[in-house]
């Protein structure tokens, strides 16, 4: 029996109070995704090195390799235990509940502006290119075209956002969905970062839920199911722990903390962390440019 | 320069491995450019912009991994794919069911994938027997999608497979689920304890999705090909399939689906059922109940009935199953809307067995039912382009597929015919199937939607009600989003039938007059 260390409060409540049945959707070395038949959502079981996140349960294991868990293996829950075929049983009895709570966008943005500058410089040097951050050398025609499209579309989106033209911004955001290499396409990661900044309490965008919903609706068919679930959750301000830590770092006057939390985010996926971080930066800069409320 | 593409269905590889793979793939000798990316519309747009668009890329889904290789010639492309597959195998253990790579010969495939135990043959029927023989000689089970294979070749291949203890599914076998891996036109269904042997593709699909809907699951779905139960072939694969499921520990209940076999073959099948320690449900469309019951089998007249019997025999709690009873108030409502002269059903199907089932349901009440697949010559359509009284057309039949893709992939022929039928004032009901699942059209209802709206409007302008019934064969696990497909159908003003059986029953009951 494997113990869950912590998990998204909604995921834990679902296992305790209602049925969770489904099948394994996809498996990776340190995570596996479960397709739930009751609500159609993907839930993630992650190893102990992974941070908390929406729909995610962290278990006391270093890897799922050699467990012979395969796509379509049956999953069900009973008595606070999640069973994956006859290959793994996870008890949630000792799991700490974690909840995604974003901080408040500050009235005084001086510290934030300073930290944005630091973060930009750091990403310039240490961020991974190939997605939102262009590669400077050895680009294939595919990479060049991809980069050109990402930059153009990102530019069009931010222009409309700064002009407060949310209705005009939606198609440009949608045009980024599913665009880019990687399991979670770079355009999707960028939007997750952007949504994070816009969902800070008191952000000028926080009350424009229709904007997020329209993009989320389009994402359902525009990208793969794994990436879609991240966008779906981000569209209601539910973000993984390491990203929230980075946003907290951006609001505090503590450079060391900022860099530490940024490093963790940049380590997500291949270019995903960098793409998310750049989305956060774009969102915060837009918040600053707009100021006040929309 | 040559561009070749491999699309790996439902394959998720973590981003770090994917990027590393992409970099290494571009370094393979002879490769000018290699692209490895998820099959989203936006990524396809990039590929289009750099001039590497192909049909395979066009058809890739958001959950598919696209591998596009541009190299000097075909040989180099193929060797690049072998290299990429090696990298992929080293880096990742792809999820079950997602392994797919291109080899130009059975021999090279068998050498490069020593663990493989099944070959799918989908080449021109002229060459298919030769390839199938090579596969069997390499101890591979065979699923032969190809049709237009001679009956002599089929018999020889099936005899060889039988001697070697291998499966020879097909020719013209479109559906199988082996070891929980869906092959060709199969649906994504739950793993369970019910095994199916099917001589009809969509019939097997219908059984598997109904079993899934009733809470059951599938161990194996063994396709035999449509001619297996003919006198000439003698049911070699059906009999071997039943035996395989009888010996399979995970299978608790066996379900058979076919058109009625040739009498001599039926005897053999019934004898095999008699020997079975496991319950066997038999759905032979239009078959004889007495013979099956006498042999100790469980007879089912229709598909839903067969699936229900199977799940109950497999241990399901009947009180927890939603059997989806026929909507009788709706029957009354539609009858009242149809004019007296609107007497006929027109069934336009992409699935042969679904067509057959609806046709047999209609034949229970009407004696003027015509079709391109009628067994009685006098009720065969003289001209398949012209309907007569109650008409049921299988658009997957050879007359419609020569030189054209199957209607489950390309719905254009059916769309044209649909409008033609909608204009006929004697038509009360048009019933259609929409098949989801692996290999099927990405949005079958969406493709028909403008025509449905047009037909409805056309009828309304002429002051009549035209009832359109759509049945969507699929599960919530299929990639096409069944809920979205149903919603589209309902939004266009069509009636959604919850099963093939209900579609047939509703169509029949809607046009019954004076009851």
From TrEMBL, chain A:
Highest taxon of source: Bacteria
InterPro entries tied to this protein: AllH-like
Pfam families according to UniProt: AllH
Name the record gives this protein: DUF2877 domain-containing protein
Organism (species): Psychrobacillus glaciei
From TrEMBL, chain B:
A cellular-component GO term for this protein: cytosol
UniProt-listed SUPFAM superfamilies: Succinyl-CoA synthetase domains
Source species, domain of life: Bacteria
UniProt domain ATP-citrate synthase/succinyl-CoA ligase C-terminal: residue ranges: 348-507
Transmembrane residue ranges: none
One example of a Gene Ontology biological process annotation: tricarboxylic acid cycle
One Pfam family here: CoA_binding
GO molecular function annotation: succinate-CoA ligase (ADP-forming) activity; succinate-CoA ligase (GDP-forming) activity
Domain CoA-binding: 191-284
NCBIfam families, per database record: PRK06091.1
Full protein name: Acyl-CoA synthetase FdrA
Organism: Psychrobacillus glaciei
């Amino acid at each position: 029996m494997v113990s869950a260390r912590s998990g998204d409060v909604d995921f834990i409540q679902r296992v305790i109070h209602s049925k969770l049945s489904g099948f394994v959707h996809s498996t990776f070395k340190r995570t596996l995704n479960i397709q739930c038949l009751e609500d159609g959502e993907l839930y993630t079981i992650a190893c102990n090195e992974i941070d908390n996140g929406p729909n995610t349960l962290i278990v006391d294991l270093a890897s799922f390799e050699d467990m012979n868990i395969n796509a379509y293996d049956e999953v069900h829950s009973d008595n606070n235990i999640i069973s994956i075929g006859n290959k793994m049983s996870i008890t949630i009895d000792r799991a700490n509940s974690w909840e995604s709570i974003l901080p408040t966008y500050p009235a005084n943005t001086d510290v934030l502006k300073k930290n944005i500058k630091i973060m930009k410089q750091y990403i310039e040097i240490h961020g991974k290119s190939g997605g939102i951050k262009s590669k400077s050398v050895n680009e294939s025609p595919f990479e060049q075209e991809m980069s050109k499209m990402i930059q153009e579309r990102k530019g069009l989106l931010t222009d409309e956002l700064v002009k407060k033209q949310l209705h005009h911004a939606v198609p440009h955001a949608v045009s980024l969905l599913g665009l880019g290499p990687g399991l979670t396409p770079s355009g999707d990661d960028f939007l997750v970062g952007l949504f994070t900044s816009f969902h800070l309490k008191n952000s000028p965008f926080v009350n424009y839920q229709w904007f997020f919903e329209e993009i989320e609706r389009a994402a359902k068919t525009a990208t793969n199911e794994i990436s879609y679930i991240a966008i779906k959750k981000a569209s209601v301000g539910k973000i993984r722990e390491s990203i929230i830590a980075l946003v907290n770092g951006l609001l505090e006057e503590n450079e060391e903390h900022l860099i530490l939390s940024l490093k963790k985010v940049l380590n997500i996926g291949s270019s995903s962390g960098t793409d998310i971080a750049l989305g956060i930066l774009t969102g915060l800069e837009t918040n600053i440019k707009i100021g006040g409320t929309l | 320069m040559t561009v070749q593409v491999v699309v790996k269905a439902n394959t998720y590889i973590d981003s770090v491995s994917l990027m590393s793979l992409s970099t290494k793939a571009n370094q393979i000798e002879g490769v000018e450019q290699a692209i490895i990316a998820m099959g989203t519309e936006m990524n396809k747009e990039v590929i289009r912009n750099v001039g590497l668009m192909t049909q395979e890329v066009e058809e890739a889904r958001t959950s598919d991994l696209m591998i596009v290789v541009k190299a000097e010639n075909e040989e180099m492309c193929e060797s690049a794919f072998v290299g990429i597959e090696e990298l992929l195998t080293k880096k990742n253990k792809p999820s079950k069911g997602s392994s797919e790579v291109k080899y130009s010969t059975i021999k090279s495939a068998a050498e490069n994938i020593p663990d493989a135990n099944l070959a799918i043959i989908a080449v021109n029927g002229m060459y298919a027997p030769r390839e199938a023989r090579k596969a069997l000689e390499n101890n591979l089970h065979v699923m032969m999608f190809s049709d237009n294979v001679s009956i002599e070749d089929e018999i020889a291949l099936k005899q060889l497979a039988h001697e070697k203890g291998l499966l020879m599914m097909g020719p013209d076998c479109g559906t199988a689920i082996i070891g929980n891996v869906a092959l060709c036109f199969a649906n994504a269904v739950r793993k369970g304890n019910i095994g199916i042997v099917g001589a009809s593709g969509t019939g097997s699909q219908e059984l598997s999705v109904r079993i899934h809907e009733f809470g059951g699951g599938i161990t194996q779905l063994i396709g035999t090909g449509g001619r297996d139960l003919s006198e000439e072939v003698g049911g070699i694969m059906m009999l071997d399939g039943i035996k395989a499921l009888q010996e399979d520990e995970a299978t608790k209940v066996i379900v058979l689906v076919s058109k009625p076999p040739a009498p001599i073959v039926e005897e053999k099948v019934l004898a095999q059922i008699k020997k079975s320690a496991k319950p066997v449900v038999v759905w032979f469309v239009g078959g004889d109940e007495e013979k099956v019951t006498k042999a100790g089998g469980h007879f089912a007249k229709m598909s839903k009935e067969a699936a229900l019997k199977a799940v109950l025999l497999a241990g399901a709690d009947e009180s927890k199953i939603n059997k989806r009873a026929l909507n009788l108030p709706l029957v009354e409502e539609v009858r009242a809307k149809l004019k007296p002269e609107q007497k006929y059903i027109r069934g336009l199907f992409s699935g042969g067995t679904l067509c057959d089932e609806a046709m047999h349901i209609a034949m229970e009440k009407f004696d003027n039912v015509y079709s391109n697949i009628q067994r009685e010559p006098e009720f065969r359509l003289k001209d398949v382009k012209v309907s007569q009284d109650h008409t049921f057309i299988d658009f997957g039949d050879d007359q419609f597929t020569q030189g054209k893709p199957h209607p489950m992939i390309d719905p254009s022929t059916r769309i044209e015919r649909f409008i033609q039928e909608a204009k006929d004032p004697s038509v009360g009901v048009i019933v259609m199937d929409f098949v989801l699942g692996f290999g099927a059209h990405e949005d079958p209802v969406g493709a028909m939607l403008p025509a449905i709206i047009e037909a409805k409007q056309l009828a309304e302008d002429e002051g009549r009600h035209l009832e359109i019934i759509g049945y969507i064969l699929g599960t919530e696990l299929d990639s096409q989003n069944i809920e979205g497909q149903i919603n589209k159908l309902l939004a266009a003003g069509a009636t959604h039938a919850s099963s093939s059986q209900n579609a047939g029953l509703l169509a029949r009951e809607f046009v019954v007059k004076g009851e």
